[in-house]
Write a structure and sequence with these properties.
The protein is of the alpha+beta class. It has one domain: Lipoprotein localisation LolA/LolB/LppX (outer membrane lipoprotein receptor (LolB), chain A, Clam), CATH 2.50.20.10. The protein has three helices and 14 strands. A hairpin with a 3-residue loop joins β4 and β5. The longest helix is centred in the N-terminal third of the chain and has 41 residues. The N terminus is likely disordered.
Length: 271
Amino acid sequence: MTHFQDTVLPNPTRFERSLHLSALLTLLLLLAGGGTAQAQDGRAILLKTRKAYQALNSYSGEAAVTLTIRTPQGTAFTGKSSSTMSFQRPNKIHLLVVSTHSSRNIYSDGTTLSTYDLATNHYHTVPMAGKQGDLLALLAREDVTSNLDPLYFLCGKSLPQELTNIQLKDAAAHLGDHPVYIIKGMIRTPAGTSNANITLGPTSSWTWWIDRRSYLIYQVETTTPNSTVGNFNGVLTIRHSVVKLQSNPVIPISEFDFIPPLNAVRKQPKR
């Protein structure tokens, strides 16, 4: 390594001292700005992700979700589900959600949202407003949550205010064959926030794997300590992995029309 020895000038003038002080202040500002630039990079990438999804007229994809909770004793409980989604702007959707205990088809034709349970042969239908944002709220009533995943970015207009400490952790990573950015962040939620049989702890850490060319999401993972799933309490990890996706596919309009199967029974929707 080349080493440069400092040259000490006797009795520096006021002008020289001013130059040294100016150079020192410039160096300190550059060093202080490095961390800020890194944090802004992560947020900037998530904003580009939001913009990329908002620019899509249609989207189709398949995803797998795994849910794991590890207790202090080391016991791990794992649940799995899969979904197939077709989306047409502004608010048409067809979702097939399959889990261990249920399979449901959810349709929105833009004016009504219908949910059909394949196991019971029951369905219900609710009216919906024409605004795109209402779709997420209606799906949440059907226990379909969009946790900063493709569905959220397709419908959501902004990043949640609770999302903080966004950082770019790796700008040259790969997920399978996809060159990706790895972004991390943190969300603070009110203690005891519940969804179905899950009660979340107050703080969650998030990780996204975002394609470096399209800015679309291929994987998102959240880890939340102090959570409860059923009778298990511990660290909850949920991973959403996109298996297949298409940007702006041509989707037949009939894809979003719900036709009740033969002998299907109509029930009252959830309140």
